[in-house]
Amino acid sequence: MEAQEKSKKDWFLRVILLFMTIGVWVNVFQNMGVSNKTYSVDVTNEVDANVRGNVNAQVHGSVSVDNVVDINLEKVIGHTVGSHKSYTSDGVEYAAIDVAIAR
Description:
Elements: H1 2-32, H2 73-77, E1 80-89, E2 92-100
Antiparallel strand pairs: 1-2
């Protein structure tokens, strides 16, 4: 009886090891790029994200901004920000932004 029980345990262990080995090799081949299957994904909901750096986007259709965006230049630049009158064109005064860099 003991030999039969041991052979069942060995058989079960070998089957589990076989499935584990197959799974590992499937992962290895996927990571090597053997299967170059690509998926097309359409995002249909809104995404709220904090983006830093550049974003390369292909936009099909139109994009509009319906409100004013407030920007904290001191936080963006990392230095104290000031301004001065730069020039006047057609009766409209324009200001330039000054940045003081502490050394």
